Amino acid sequence: MELNEELARVAAQEATLHLTRFDEDVAWRLGSRLQSMAMERGLAIAIEIRRCGQLLFYSALPGTTPDNADWIRRKGNVVTRFLRSSYAVGLSLQQKGGDLASRYGLPAADYASHGGAFPLCVEGAGIIGYVAVSGLPQRDDHELVVEALSAELRLSYSPPPA
């Protein structure tokens, strides 16, 4: 898929996947959904959900390492800084040429513009946190989160073209 098309597809996801409410129960349900999806598919991922810096859900499935938690932290920092999915930020940087360090002076030790962290946007409130996974190729991390959010919102999910 062409870079412009991929960016437009991700922007449409960001514009559509808005929750009507968010609390600890929603975080648990969403995190548990991601965990079940991963277990059914045999995926080794870590999952994190944060609201305003507060950890509400975390799970590290068999086959993950502490590096997965650090990738989540770094990708989550990108969502918090740019209010966009970490995948969208990475694609945008790829399109413009450059990286977070050269364009924004952000250290790679704290920021990763790789797919997998997605903003939690609540209607009437805006972005209040993020949901993130780590362990798969970046596009797959991103799409797993989008698929779970779509299911939570009872929206149809169509995987991207290969």
Notes on the structure:
This protein has 162 residues and is of the alpha+beta class. It has one domain: 2-Layer Sandwich (Beta-Lactamase), CATH 3.30.450. The chain contains 6 helices and 5 strands, in the order H-E-H-E-E-H-H-H-E-E-H. The protein has helices at 3-16, 24-41, 66-82, 86-96, 100-104, 138-152, and strands at 18-19, 46-51, 54-60, 117-122, 126-134. The chain has a 5-stranded mixed β-sheet with strand order 1-4-5-2-3. Helix 1 packs antiparallel against helix 4 and helix 2 (24-41) packs across helix 6. The N and C termini lie close together (7 Å).
What layout of secondary structure does this protein have?
Layout: H1 3-16, E1 18-19, H2 24-41, E2 46-51, E3 54-60, H3 66-82, H4 86-96, H5 100-104, E4 117-122, E5 126-134, H6 138-152
Parallel strand pairs: 1-4
Antiparallel strand pairs: 2-3, 2-5, 4-5
Helix pairs in contact: 1-4, 2-6
What is the CATH fold-level name?
A: Beta-Lactamase
Q: What is the tally of beta strands?
A: 5
Oligomer: single chain
Give the mean pLDDT.
Answer: 97
Major sheet attributes: 5 strands, mixed
Distance between the termini: 7 Å
Count of the domains: 1
User: What percent of the residues sit in helical stretches (DSSP H or I)?
Assistant: 40-55%
Spatial sequence of strands, sheet with the most strands: 1-4-5-2-3
Q: H/E order of the elements?
A: HEHEEHHHEEH
* Alpha carbon gyration radius: 15 Å
